[in-house]
Amino acid sequence: MNALVLAVHWRGVAVPLLFELLPHSGNSGTSTRLALLDEALTLVDCCDVATIYADREFIGQAWIQGLAERGLPITVRLRVDTRIDDLPRAGGWRESNPMKKPCGSTMQRSRACR
Question: Which residues make beta-bridge pairs with 15?
Answer without folding.
Answer: 8
